[in-house]
């Protein structure tokens, strides 16, 4: 049995610097520069940049990136997210081609595609989602694909269009536990996201979701979320430390010790999940290539 660490009170921790286990190296190297150039040349958006991901140096250095389609302005205003919020004006029907060509030039074996929420669009951007996956497969048939899709607000026809293009993994992040939804995701609904995962599984897809820790959740609430996800057909769960992107966003309640992340991984597996990626620096697409065949 893993001995759980004693966590300092949240107030005390937020006044101290980040613990050593959250330190990351600055992005450098030839492969990083290559990806940087391709992203700029093809005028693409990446969640790596927009989301201030701490793993950008590692992933880009390995020649991979998570592309964000449908612009870089989101119609939602989640309290944890660094992506810009507003009224989007970008809807580029040529974007699927540019993304597919960039992935071909990068020679990636596994591609992750995500997007902002486009609630103002009748189909939630599903047609662009579908075409992006189709064009990637046409140019790079050996490349496996994970699509990290947003909440479709119960537009199940749009969901089917999004997930029917041949991708191997479909991810939809819960982001937090039930009790914190109103605070963390005010425009989303916990049970609606569970239903979206359930419907994706029923369609025959490998399902994936992610939860941020350190927002003030209890261990029992994390266990409840794991049970809910397992009951709705989730295959893969990622657990990572929430990091406050700016002073305008919700504060970190506590820094979760790596030993507790290890404990959560074992708990998730014991509760019926097939694979759990759990660690302070884990993000939705971190080591995503491992999740294709689990």
Structural class: alpha/beta
Number of strands: 10
What string gives the helices and strands in order?
HHEHHEEEHEHEHEHHEHEHE
CATH level-4 homologous superfamily: Aldolase class I
Radius of gyration: 18 Å
Q: Give me the number of helical elements.
A: 11
| Termini gap | 25 Å
CATH class: Alpha Beta
Which CATH architecture is right? Answer: Alpha-Beta Barrel
The portion of residues assigned to helices is 25-40%
Strand content: 5-15%
Largest sheet, spatial ordering of strands: 1-2-5-6-7-8-9-10
CATH fold assignment: TIM Barrel
Name the average pLDDT: 84
Q: Count structural domains.
A: 1
- Which segments are poorly predicted (pLDDT under 50) over 5 or more consecutive residues? 1-15
| Main beta-sheet annotation | 8 strands, mixed
Description:
This protein is an alpha/beta fold and 294 residues long. Strands 1-2-5-6-7-8-9-10 form an eight-stranded mixed β-sheet. Strand 6, helix 7 and strand 7 form a beta-alpha-beta unit. The chain is globular. The two termini are 25 Å apart. It is an enzyme of class 2 (transferase). Its cofactor is [4Fe-4S] cluster. One of its GO terms (cellular component) is cytoplasm. Pathway: Protein modification; protein lipoylation via endogenous pathway; protein N(6)-(lipoyl)lysine from octanoyl-[acyl-carrier-protein]: step 2/2.
